[in-house]
Amino acid sequence: MWEMWSRIAVVGMLAICAAEDIRKKEIHLNLILAFGIVGVVFHMLWQMQTIENVLFGMGVGGALLLLSILTRGKIGIGDGILLVVTGIYLGLEQNLELLICSLFICAVYALCLLALRKRSRKDTVAFVPFVLISYVCMLAGVL
């Protein structure tokens, strides 16, 4: 039961945030935090993962937040907060897999844009759509 609801929640959150990220190049933190609260409630009701796994999963997003601060915003702070929340649902291994796959797909996309001279190195790329694509691929067993 927990797995089905958590998958639906993560796909829904990522789809909403991806659309917003594409449109505005930003995501609303209130929505992400609401999904985080729902994730905590899921854990209190069903306890499908250990608290350590959840905390380490959230740490993946925490590391991205730290990188956002160190790079002075070159990596969006919202992306880090989003991965903190996905860590609540996915735990360490799956959240780390999600981040790595998202970064890889985003990098390939950005390199293609650079090679085709559609964008320059200074342009930004919305990251959340790649997180959504990665998560859907993980669910489908492609990754």
- Quaternary organisation: single chain
Beta-strand fraction estimate: under 5%
Structural class given helices, strands, pairing? mainly alpha
Helical segment tally?
5
* Basic shape: globular
Number of strands: 0
Q: Give the biggest beta sheet.
A: none
Pick out the low-confidence regions: none
SSE run: HHHHH
Question: What is the percent of helical residues?
Answer: over 70%
Average pLDDT score: 92
CA-CA gap between termini = 23 Å
Rounded to an integer, what's the Rg over CA atoms? 15 Å
Tell me what the structure shows.
This protein has 143 residues and is mostly helical. The protein has 5 helices and no strands. The chain is globular. The two termini are 23 Å apart. The mean pLDDT is 92.
Structure in a nutshell:
By secondary structure, this protein is mostly helical. Helix content is 79%, strand content 0%. It has helices at residues 2-24, 29-46, 51-70, 77-115, 128-140.
